[in-house]
Amino acid sequence: MTENKMQLSFLAISQNESFARATAAAFAAQLNPTLVEITEIKTAVSEAVTNAIIHGYDGMDGDHMVDLKCHIVDKDIFIEISDSGKGIDDIDLAREPLYTSKPEMERSGMGFTVMEEFMDDMEVISKIGAGTTIKLRKTLRQ
């Protein structure tokens, strides 16, 4: 059994979204993913991190962090993105395609839909006032 783990915390600013995406992709590279698989992982991580920054910490003062954890077991990569921000009022509504709580920012409302499409499993755990964790899993086909 092949197993490896990493975790990273970074400031919740938009400049770190590409850093998180590249870090997750570099970690996944040890599984020898296809170009399509690596693109899907990068996109899903990008969506989750962007949600944490834009929605999780919206309007909150202070230096807030986003946590990224990756865990590989055999051909599976498990990715967890967490914030300790506002939390999600209605997870089912937030997961609806085209729903956005930020229409004034021209958000597409497709973040969760994209994550679900590109990953094999997605779980959203959220508590109002305590933050949100997105758990993703992808089995690489090799």
Describe the structure.
The protein is of the alpha+beta class and 142 residues long. It has a single domain (3-139), classed as Histidine kinase-like ATPase, C-terminal domain (Heat Shock Protein 90), CATH 3.30.565.10. The protein contains four helices and five strands; from the N terminus they run βααββααββ. The chain has helices at 15-28, 35-56, 91-94, 111-118; strands spanning 3-11, 65-73, 76-83, 121-127, 131-139. It has a five-stranded antiparallel β-sheet with strand order 1-2-3-5-4, covered by helices on one side. β2 (65-73) and β3 form a beta hairpin. It starts with a strand and ends with a strand. The relative contact order is 0.21. The mean pLDDT is 89.
What is the CATH architecture assignment? 2-Layer Sandwich
Shape: globular
Strands in their spatial order, largest beta sheet: 1-2-3-5-4
- End-to-end distance, in Å? 16 Å
Structural class: alpha+beta
